[in-house]
């Protein structure tokens, strides 16, 4: 009960600043200090967001179920398309980065082989690969997924390496003195100790993947939140641009909250909260 009360209090505090920003924004719009075509009012953005959410066509029972019609709005379909690309790209990038990071963290030989290449490629932003990705994969989901995988790869990789290399030597020596095998050492000592770093990398990687998908959708696909924002720009629909941006922010917030709760649940032992 106390935890729930604390969560609601934190939410209320967190909403104060956004409410102030929206109030100031509405004041500026009402006073006419800014061209509404350049910066529409929050109410105009809210109206466009609702229109963006609702289905484009009236319900027709002959065309399918009511549920299928209810989720046929552009906002829902674009959000699902973007999330699909984020999930697939992150699973590919994170799935490749995790074993490589574990190997580089545990073995100096593997680290020496890969470190120079990793440090050369890591500073290159995924956006720089857009021309090559379109040449290699054409248009559609493949280039977008490739860019997202790149964006998610390095945060997971570098945090995994750091997590393995930061394992306290006392734990390793104690396990060796107790006769632990290499497999037991990895599964019972090194991997659990590295989990906090790995989860931090996952959290950063998902955030990076969501940033990259918006950029990728502006150049390689014909749906998704990024594509819709670019389309709105071409028609000078500022309200729809901001509605799309707010949607991105809300989805990003939901993902971050979910990841934070997952981290807290998985790391209860690390924080000494186990019963």
UniProtKB/TrEMBL annotation:
Family assignment from sequence similarity: Belongs to the binding-protein-dependent transport system permease family.
Gene Ontology cellular-component terms listed: plasma membrane
PROSITE patterns named among the record's database cross-references: ABC_TM1
Superkingdom as given in the UniProt entry: Bacteria
Entry protein name: ABC transporter permease subunit
Localization per record: Cell membrane
ABC transmembrane type-1 domain segment(s): 79-259
């Amino acid at each position: 009960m106390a935890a729930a009360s604390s969560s609601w209090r934190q939410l209320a505090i967190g909403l104060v600043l956004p409410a102030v920003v929206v109030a100031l924004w509405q004041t500026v719009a009402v006073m006419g200090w800014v061209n509404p075509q350049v910066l529409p009012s929050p109410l105009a953005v809210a109206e466009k967001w609702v229109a963006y959410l609702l289905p484009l066509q009236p319900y027709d029972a002959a065309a399918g179920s009511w549920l299928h019609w209810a989720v046929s709005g552009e906002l829902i379909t674009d959000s699902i398309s973007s999330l699909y690309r984020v999930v697939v790209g992150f699973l590919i990038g994170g799935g490749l980065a995790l074993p490589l990071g574990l190997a580089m963290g545990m073995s100096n030989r593997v680290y020496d082989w890969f470190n120079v290449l990793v440090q050369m490629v890591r500073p290159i932003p995924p956006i720089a690969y857009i021309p090559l990705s379109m040449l290699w994969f054409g248009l559609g989901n493949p280039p977008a997924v490739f860019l997202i995988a790149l964006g998610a790869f390095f945060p997971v990789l570098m945090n995994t390496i750091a997590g393995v290399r930061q394992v306290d030597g006392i734990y390793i020596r104690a396990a060796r003195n107790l006769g632990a095998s290499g497999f037991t050492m990895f599964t019972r000592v090194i991997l659990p100790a590295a989990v906090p770093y790995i989860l931090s990398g996952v959290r950063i990687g998902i955030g990076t993947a969501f940033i990259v998908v918006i950029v990728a959708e502006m150049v390689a696909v014909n749906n998704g939140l990024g594509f819709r924002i670019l389309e709105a720009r071409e028609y000078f629909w500022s309200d729809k641009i901001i509605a799309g941006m707010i949607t991105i922010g809300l989805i990003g917030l939901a993902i971050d909250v979910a990841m934070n709760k997952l981290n807290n649940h998985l790391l209860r032992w690390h924080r000494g909260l186990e019963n």
